[in-house]
Amino acid sequence: MNKLWTKNFIIITLGTLVSALGNAISAFSIALIVLRYTESTFLFAVFMVVYNLPKIVMPLIAGPYMDRFSRSKVIYTLDFLSAVLYFLIFVLLYNDLFLYGPFLFMAFIIGSIDSTYQLAYDSLYPTLVTEENYSKAYSISSMIYPLSSVMVLLAAFLYDNNGMRGLVWLFLFNAITFFVAAAFETQIRAPEAQIPIDGAKFSLATYHREFRDGLTYINGQKGLKIITAFFFLNMFAFAASAVVVLPYFMSTEALKTTWYTYVMAGGVIGRIIGGTLQYNIKYSARIRYGLSIGVYIALSFLEGSYLFFPALVMIGINLVSGILTVTSVNIRAAAMQSYVPNEYRGRFNGTFQMICTLGTILGQLLAGAMADFFGDRIVLAAFMGVNLIAVLGIMLPGKKHVSVIYNRAV
């Protein structure tokens, strides 16, 4: 059996963990500042939309390039750029130079970097492991972003105890760690077979041809189209959580950010437990589709109801949700990335990421607008109802085509 923990795999795992930690800090900390100064859920939602807006365009533009150029070079270049950007943010905040407009612009830049990095990572990652190790590899990958939530909890703790000044030094920490990660990522030696060996120049005509070929491939894959349609609505629904949960805690006198920290910690612990289980347990291929459907349905009820319970119960619900979320992510990611050929991964991942982000942005805007009128808890419950409808109306009728992908022996 081929070894999973190779030099390349260790570097990409640690480097992506650093990137996830840094992006979690920036998104949460700056959003917290915006929410404090504007005191508006809608403006808070606008900030999140601006952060996610590049994720609609950048993956679609970058997809053909990812299938022709070095994905590892893209990764370390973006991490070097992030180090510079976070140092600039540190300098601005340290000198109390916060203005809504400039930080909104920086959110756009961070979103552009984040989306392009994610596309490069999604396309490179499967080439660094053998197919027999996909399940274990994606169990590790599925824990990276949950682990980044630890930095969100740290940021919330620093804010509670030191106010805005407590967040400033996290950005300097970001700058340093991103620089170190990028330095190590330059040592990745990936078998990037998608790079043309003839050294042919990548012209605009070549770009158009690659773009069309990618769309033709996706259009011919009914199972992938069904999964993408479902995740458009799934991301639309779960976008409400990102918009309404923090404002709900901050506006509820008995909760505030302290309980937000504890409740979110429950989800983090759940995801770590779930990732550990996925690493050690290999589900039979024939049950993966059915297991995923059950998880999607359960999450609709758990996520839609937990804000109606006392804080201690919320922690327990988030713990279970975390375990289930990692289970579904692991099955879907491993199956899809092994199903899509390497020469099409950049374009497919770019299209998939773009559509999911579009769902996220639409969900954030609508949830933010509705929350001011109907309340945070009602909005979250309604949006989770949309997720349930998507499971029953898209994934179940598409079983014939989706199960071929989900039930792959990986």
Describe this structure in words.
The chain contains 15 helices and no strands. With 410 residues, it is mostly helical. Helix 2 packs across helix 5, helix 9 (222-251) packs across helix 15 and helix 11 (288-305) runs antiparallel to helix 12 (311-339). The two termini are 14 Å apart. 50% of the residues are buried.
Short synopsis of the structure:
The protein is globular and about 55 Å long. The protein is built from 15 helices and no strands. The chain has helices at residues 7-38, 41-52, 54-66, 71-94, 100-124, 134-162, 165-185, 204-219, 222-251, 256-280, 288-305, 311-339, 342-374, 376-395, 399-406.
- Strand tally, please? 0
Q: What percent strand?
A: under 5%
Helix coverage percent of residues?
A: over 70%
Question: What class, by secondary structure content?
Answer: mainly alpha
Give me the number of helical elements: 15
List keywords for this structure.
410 residues, mainly alpha, 15 helices, 0% strand
Write the layout of secondary structure elements.
Blueprint: H1 7-38, H2 41-52, H3 54-66, H4 71-94, H5 100-124, H6 134-162, H7 165-185, H8 204-219, H9 222-251, H10 256-280, H11 288-305, H12 311-339, H13 342-374, H14 376-395, H15 399-406
Helix pairs in contact: 1-2, 1-5, 1-6, 1-7, 2-5, 2-13, 3-5, 3-13, 4-5, 4-7, 5-13, 6-7, 6-10, 6-12, 9-10, 9-13, 9-14, 9-15, 10-12, 11-12, 11-14, 13-14
